[in-house]
Amino acid sequence: MVRQQKGKVRWCMSRDIQRMVDIESACIENPWEAEDFEICLRSKNSNGFVVEYDGEVVGHLMFTHSPGRFGLVSVVVHPSKRRMGLGSKMVRHLLKKMDKVDGPAFTEVMVSDRQLESHQFFKSLGFLATGIKHHHFGPDHDGYRFRLKKLSIDEYGLEVVS
Ligand SMILES: CC(C)(COP(=O)(O)OP(=O)(O)OC[C@H]1O[C@@H](n2cnc3c(N)ncnc32)[C@H](O)[C@@H]1OP(=O)(O)O)[C@@H](O)C(=O)NCCC(=O)NCCS
Q1: pLDDT greater at residue 87 or residue 5
Q2: 0.85 surpassed by pTM
Q3: For burial by CB atoms within 10 Å, which of 8, 53, 97, 128 has the most?
Q4: How many domains does the structure of the chain reveal?
């Protein structure tokens, strides 16, 4: 059976910040404060999406962009709305931008070694664990780098027609 994919992804706006702070406070070990989101949204090199469910913001995704690369800073879904495809929907929204001809060559994210469910989440989206950074999140708290490459024309198996 095909699972119905409810939820609407849109650009994050400053009026969403308090709700995003509340979501992080409900479920993240080191939640961002409003100022962290404000800095991210003001910067030229970062931005974010939110996902709405029944008209309410229930998750967000923050990312940075530099030539050739999207850095996924965080993706969070409210605990009451998990396993409904909303986190995947936000990540796919970002990946669609990577798929454009002049889009970045890859997207990557550092994930705590303690969040095995997040490892499963990124693997389900096609990301591969490509590195480990010891003490990335603090003493004895390592980070795994998950990366998804944009497929080259060869990898898609497409013929270049001139
Ligand atoms: C990781 C997170 C964003 C996933 O959001 P979500 O909306 O629940 O994810 P989806 O419903 O799109 O899940 C897609 C797939 O990922 C995998 N997955 C997601 N959560 C999982 C879990 N807890 N255990 C095992 N697999 C999981 C499954 O394969 C799932 O597909 P399925 O439900 O058909 O089995 C959410 O759990 C979360 O907010 N966690 C806390 C913050 C965090 O760790 N963020 C990631 C690091 S930045």
Answers
A1: 87
A2: yes
A3: 53
A4: 1
